[in-house]
Amino acid sequence: MGELYEKMDCMIGEINDVMKNNKHHADKEKMNEILLSRWEKLNIPMHCLGFALNPFFYDTNYLQSPAPGGVPRRAPNYDREVVQGVIKAFDKIGEDEEERRVLRQQLATFQAKGGIFGTLSAKVDAVTMSPISWWSTYGAETPELAEIVVKVLSHPITSSSEKSVWSTYSYIHNIKRNRLNYLRVDKLVFMHTNIRLISRFTASYKDGPYRKCDFNPETTYLDDSATRLEDSRWREGLDSLEGGDDDANKIPESKRQRFPDS
């Protein structure tokens, strides 16, 4: 997470370098517009926070080295977009204004290299150690911020959640359900995904027959998850019928087919 923002900046500069002597040089501005438009859509405050919390990006040698495209490098605290993103991230992370104030104050101490952050060993290790290891070593003076740092910087960058959304889409709109217009499908995907997230806070999700019904939501097997959930409900219904008379315990053929082992 801590390197995504910087890599995006470098990618734009590297493309500009490649396009200088390229036969498609005239399309450079158009390509930049496409890249920036995509970045504006993808960029979130957490990316800015991860960039601002990486000690490597405050290293003097790094800041003095030329960036791709010939643009001078700037420390995260001198980038307006990054600062705005950090403030927005703290607003979401902090439970109250006092906690947000503490986080901002500790961030200022880190960026100004005050206290233990200004020691020679901290500056050297900022280049050689991973950001998480560095904060685990030197984050004692800013415990609240250090706790946030570990959570943010250890967050992986993956497209699994995006694939999960497309899996949900295929579950709602497929060959058998192809008469829905795209606006209705979009709303159903939104509702289905958020209802599943809300269900994880219920007691039945943590314990009972429906425990973790979406057992592996990061895969494409959403249909299989739904089938398992439905089967669990049928089995619960069968258990409630035990102990009754023969007619009450007689299972309809359509239901029996679901449980060949019953």
Task: Sum this structure up briefly.
By secondary structure, the chain is an all-alpha fold. It contains 15 helices and no strands. The protein is 63% helix and 0% strand.
Count of folded domains: 2
Q: Order of SSEs, N→C?
A: HHHHHHHHHHHHHHH
Strand content: under 5%
**Cα separation of the termini:** 49 Å
Percent in helix: 55-70%
GO molecular function, one term: protein dimerization activity
Pfam families: Dimer_Tnp_hAT
InterPro entries: HATC_C_dom (IPR008906), RNaseH-like_sf (IPR012337)
Organism: Chenopodium quinoa
Could you walk me through the main structural features you see in this protein, from its secondary elements to its overall organization?
This is HAT C-terminal dimerisation domain-containing protein. Residues 247-262 have a biased composition (Basic and acidic residues). The structure is a single chain. This protein is mainly alpha-helical and 262 residues long. The chain folds into two domains: 4-153, no CATH class; 160-256, no CATH class. The chain is built from 15 helices and no strands. The chain has helices at residues 4-20, 28-42, 45-52, 60-64, 80-93, 97-111, 120-128, 131-138, 143-153, 160-172, 182-199, 203-206, 222-241, 246-249, 253-256. Helix 1 runs antiparallel to helix 2 and helix 5 (80-93) runs antiparallel to helix 6 (97-111). The chain is flat. Residues 216-227 and 243-262 have low confidence and may be disordered.
